[in-house]
Design brief:
Blueprint lengths: L2 E5 L6 E2 L3 H14 L15 H11 L8 H25 L4 E2 L3 H9 L4 E6 L4 H10 L9 E2 L7 H13 L7 E5 L2 H9 L3 E5 L6 H6 L4 E3 L5 H9 L1
Parallel strand pairs: 1-4, 1-6, 4-5, 6-7, 7-8
Antiparallel strand pairs: 2-3
Helix pairs in contact: 1-3, 3-5, 4-9, 6-7
Length: 229
């Protein structure tokens, strides 16, 4: 049976310099005339669906709290948002890949018994824009995305269905930098590798229930042992 490895994007594979958040704020302003619409919302670990819905609720944009009302606004927002992502990636400073990411992806891509995928809170098109900008689009393109579900646990379940082809939960690893990634893996009986490449420490990731927690992905051999044991 193939080993399924699902990656979060932001603060796990890369740091975008805040480009995604800036593009979301700018799109919201274009549509609703509201500055810093997400100023009271902590982005880390949330899906774009959850971030946008909370922003719309806070500013009274939605007709009601149903998903139907939200989805009625989602497509319009995405049409405004997606053209802004790539320009923001070029405009911001400090964007970078996290340590060891390319080396690990190269090593995993050589394994015929491994399937790689995404479990990211980013909307699909924004995820692909970020991956392309940082040169990772050749490794990752399918999985679960922020327009699949509001809840990250559901998103991971969708990623598993798309990638796994009937793999057992013990054959699935979710790699992420927040407790949300860890809890989403646990909700699907998958294993989790927490990396302290964001704002959460290895101790906090272990406390959240990570199967393994590491400072980063820089030790390719060690990470491969964890994932393929």
């Amino acid at each position: 049976m193939a080993r399924i490895i699902l990656f979060d994007i932001d603060q796990t594979l890369l740091y975008s310099g805040g480009a995604g958040g800036l593009a979301m704020r700018k799109a919201f302003h274009q549509l609703h005339g509201i500055d810093d619409a997400f100023g009271q919302i902590e982005f880390s670990g949330l899906t774009d669906w959850a971030i946008l819905k909370r922003g719309m609720q806070h500013h009274g944009v939605l007709d009601d709290d149903t998903d139907q009302s939200f989805l009625g606004h989602l497509t319009r927002f995405q049409q405004a948002y997606y053209p802004l992502v790539e320009p923001m990636l070029h405009e911001v400073e400090g964007g970078h890949l996290k340590p060891g990411v390319v080396e690990l992806l190269d090593a995993l891509a050589e394994r015929p018994d491994v399937r790689l995928g995404l479990a990211t809170g980013n909307f699909r098109e924004a995820a692909l824009i970020k991956l392309r900008h940082f040169g990772l689009d050749g490794y990752l393109s399918e999985g679960g995305f922020g327009d699949d579900a509001e809840d990250r646990g559901e998103l991971v379940g969708i990623a598993i269905q798309r990638i796994a082809n009937g793999a057992a939960p013990t054959d699935v690893w979710v790699i992420g930098d927040t407790p949300h990634d860890i809890s989403a893996a646990r909700a699907n009986n998958a294993r989790s590798l927490g990396v302290a490449t964001g704002t959460t420490t290895t101790e906090e990731l272990r406390d959240a229930g990570a199967t393994v927690a590491l400072p980063d992905l820089s030790d390719t051999a060690a990470v491969m042992r964890v994932l393929l044991e």
